[in-house]
## 1
Amino acid sequence: MTMHHWLKRFSFASMIGMFLILLMGALVTKTESGAGCGDDWPLCNGKFIPAYTIESMIEYSHRFVVGVVSLVLLATMILVFMYSNRKDAKWYITGAMFFTLLQAVLGALAVIMPQSSLVMALHFGFSLLSFAFTLLLALVYTRFGDSMQRGDGTTLTKGVRVAIWSTLVFTYVVVYLGAFVRHTEALGGCIGWPLCNGQVIPELTGATAIVFVHRLAAAILGISLLLLYLAVRMQASSDSSLYRATRLSFIFVVLQILSGGFVTLSIGYDVYLLASLLHTLIVSCLFGMLCYLSITSLQSTGRSKVQAYAAPRLP
């Protein structure tokens, strides 16, 4: 087996591992299992193998997976720095390792000492960044790697490129607001969907204000991605990577908004946990796709070397 295949396998293992961490972190929050191991870290209630309770097993399983994935990331980093000639791959694995360690430290601090909801909301955001870096790393060793390094032959205006990166940043803000809603347990502040407590604009106090701001930001993001899709459609061919990535991003944001409504309407029902995990899954796909779109857009400046390469196609 060639070293390229080993790099590909380890990068994909890192990506899958980070995706699992995202879902397990959401599960910990939604089941309120964060205190399942008491205030001990890295042990759980003073034991290496804790006594069986649902909360302790969920929390400790999350810690265990973070530890295993961190080792996989370390092995991947060693392989990338020793055998890969792609500078961007080295940046991606470094970013993934940095944010993985950062979210692990933040998680440990949350166990040892109380943290505010503003700080705890960063935990999911850092995990999402780690996943995005591992996704980009995995794509480097696929047929999409060339478009990330050399472009797909499309020329975008500076305004569209700025809009793409601005949308990525705003998406992270929306994700943070969603994590803040979870950690403040404010979801019940808006009963019903799409209206909030039967009103277009409810009384903006307490939990209602927190949820409504998140909903409003999500709506703005949906409109922004629609406009971005139309703009890219005018400048890119229908078979270009940029066009297909923008189209998929718009599809994901629509699904994300609908899944948010599903979460709200499922409150009090057994399907609530499944709806919450689905919400997390879709936003991870959305953010990852926007990261790929943003990186690829950097190569769409119309320089001659960009035009010399054929565009790989997204499925």
## 2
Amino acid sequence: MEKTDTAPRPDRKSPSWTQDPEGVRRSILEAARIEFVEHGLSGARVDEIAAKTATSKRMIYYYFGDKEGLYRAVIEEMYDRIRRFERGLDLGALPPDEAMAKLAGFTFDYHADNPDFVRMVMIENIHHARHLATSTKIATLNLSIIDVIREIYEGGVAAGLFRPGLEALDIHLTISALSFYNVSNRASIRQVFGHDMGAPDILPQRRQTAIDTVMRMLRH
């Protein structure tokens, strides 16, 4: 009896597969991001993702293996995006104190402008980061920002601008926490205190507070 190949194959009825395979992949990731952000991993449906793209469910499995593989790819893409933006800041051309303030401000702005990133990280924490643990890209991606912060910080210590004894990871966690909380807890703070942290007249103050907190942590 002839052996049947059960591995998923691309849907060759879609001309875009051969004309622009990377474009198809990006389209799937974008539709998947919206679906996962809205419904979480368990509630998201691959059928819905396929319906919103010029492809098929079979094509999605061809690219990403299964729903969890697609979910992991979405997270990887979201982390890759923020790291690409950070690399474009050209922080090495600035004095250490200006570079750190710029990074803190950028991180705050990025989270405020990309609430889907915050929501996906929250969803992944619900799953105890088990998908991040199986990613071959995430660790390498995120180590880059620690190296950047370490270089800025050590330059600031050498110049007498920053106090010694701090760890680059602690600085990163502080910057991230101040930026993340302003988005992740916006709804609950609004309900409990009647204070909208994302309102146009409040957000700039929150941003400056985040920068000031980081700089006070670093200075003598």
## 3
Amino acid sequence: MNDNLIGIFIPRDHYESVKKGSVSSSYQQFELAANTLGLSICFFTANGFLDSKDVKMLTMNLSNDSYSESTACLPKVIYNRSSLRNKKTREILNYFIENGSYVFNVTPISNSKYYVNQLLEKESHIAMHLPQTLFGSKKNLRKLMDQFDCLFIKPCYSSVGKGILYLERHKKLGWFIYEKSANNKGWGKSEFTNLEKIRIERLFQHRQFIIQEKIPLATYKNRPFDLRVIIQKNSTGHWAITGTAAKLAPKNQLITNVGSGGEFGDLRQFLLASNLSYPEVEQKVHTLALDVASALEKTWPNIADLGLDIGITEEGKPYFIECNLRGKYGSFEKRKELFTLWKNIHHTPIAYAGYLLEKYNQKVMKLNKQDS
């Protein structure tokens, strides 16, 4: 077996695409990173799992830059890039851990927005940077509507802003509800009537939601912005900020998700327009990101690759919004000013995998010396 082999666990459809010769630019970056570090990588998936010792895997044939499938021993270091929503996937990854492999970017349970919030609320130094958040229920909706004038209702499991609802109280007209239009290009507005309340309460019965205070985000030209902070474990095994990207909401819209029409922008310019100090805000954001990663690691020791959404108020205070364990950064690749960050996002986990592999090899050597 190749002693420098790193395994990357990927979704089944991705595995089939690579097998057929269609390799994404992200997977190509993993290969480039491995080559730079003197490592080799293989891709494998759930349907290639045979037993604790063998897996079907795809490795690159250097003679023609194509991938071929073979069966080999389970890699000793595995970087998970598959969704943790699937219980079977979590069971397989945990089985690999139990059989001696170092597996990272995996949690024992699915990371719902509510559960993450509960974990972070336990840390007093982080709790002050969290919006008020309750689990979606009739009682909690009523409670937060009594406390705040603006609320978000978010699915516990969603991405790119899908399924988000927004409630806002107008002083004289009462409550209104906003939700994405069918074409996903804007927000529809309607009165929050008793019928609407009943509809929301029924949603709570069939799907998990959080109800969350709206943070008064700083704005640029009347458009709110927030940050995606990528924090990963590096070649020394420590958490480090890989990079930060500012996201600006579309005109007359509420959320900054680039997949929903938001756009990347220059954080320095945004902060200057808001009379905020870039070095001061950056330090506060980085401190919060490192604190969040360290706090989550207490419960999830096998995490190493996080994308944090962090908002900034008009006073420059950072607020944690949500955490992504399997960020997708294709839109970074298309922006010249973010391309280097995009490359580093792919190279850092491979460098961390190399650190784990060296750690594993040292452990084996130590055991062999003890036995000899």
## 4
Amino acid sequence: MTGSPIEAALRKLIGVTIPPHFGDEKVPAFRPHMTITSDIPDNLDPKEVLGKISLSGLLEVSFKELNIGLLSKEMGVGYVKVFRKTYYTRGTLHLERTPAIVGLARQCRELFANGGTEEEAVDKWEKEVFTPHVSLVYSAMEPIPDNMRKAIGKDLQEANIGVLHWNGPKGEMRGWKGGSIVLVSTHNPIEEWEAMAERRL
């Protein structure tokens, strides 16, 4: 996704277009990404972690639906702390649960999450928690007004980003192929999130 039109469109939405809807709240900016898993211990070697991941074929990411204001499963990472303030994932593009995405997430979870996870626990996580998504905004606002939901939906359409149930124009961007898998330290404020290792898919 790096350097692609879809990345540029998402960066603008996340950093420029969507934040003004939240008024005086300074919602944080961040790099566009699809979250795979959390709970990877700090004591693991980042390059070794990415080196052990087995990939089969080109990963395809497809946007399924826009979710604004609803706190869903979000893979157990529905909120982040920034200078003692809690920001919730208030806007996401939920993704198609393809076998490739589910398989990659299960592999990462089983090999590395919490230092390694039993298959039974991974099964439960996949069925009850795992929601593949691309976050668009983190905010402390509650509730999200209906007019804001509509405005953000319009923002996406004007950015030429669509989801499966929209009947958008030909050429609309509805996902991407390939990209990179990145191991990120999220202990600091979002603006200081650090990519510890990166591997092209």
